[in-house]
Amino acid sequence: MTKPTGPDPVPLRSGRPRSEQSRSAVLQATSDLMQEVGLRAMTTDEIAGRSGVSKATIYKWWPNKYAVAVDAFLSAMYSESGDPDTGSAEKDFRVALRGIMTFYRSPSGPIFAQLIGEAQSDPAVATELGNHLMQARREVGRKIWDRGVARGELRPEIDREIAVDLIFGPAMYRLLATNAPLDDATADALVDAAMRGLAAG
Q1: pTM here?
Q2: Sign of dihedral through CA atoms 187, 173, 82, 146?
Q3: 154 bridge partner residues
Q4: Distinct helix (H) and strand (E) counts, the chain
Q5: How many domains does the chain have?
Q6: For labelling, which of 7, 64, 65, 118 has a CA lying 20 to 30 Å from the CA of 199?
Q7: Which residues pair with 131 in a beta bridge?
């Protein structure tokens, strides 16, 4: 099965237009460095040196290294879990949640958990994480939900945000608080359980 595709998931920030090649180099360098030296130890100087993009240019596009990390994570998540739009809300949720779990169990998963930890004590990191990653990811769930309601598959009286939490929240909980599996079978079981309360009819 081909991976779902979608538009560039990272919203452009204010400033000069970015070269897509340079942006990709920065995000790849950031992903590599986070796995090699860790989120806290990684520096913007190292990102610049690894990517070949000047530090000054990086700061024109991102306010700090955590903002770069957020965009790197978001790009990686979309490569695994975009908006599949299969024509079935249940299938869409299943594919999207499988993709999220694939990302969480990859080497990037524990580093992403570190970023969430940083956000608890650093308001700037929390803002970057909430505004540029969490909302973008939730938007995928909202689109799936809205399509399902429009097709009569899902119960329209249920709050959309709660429905998205029910589908995707357990994966985050498993990443942060347990050693429970993050595999396809678990993703399917979670969607099956949620749909018993969310499906219309």
Answers
A1: 0.84
A2: positive
A3: 199
A4: 10, 0
A5: 1
A6: 7
A7: none
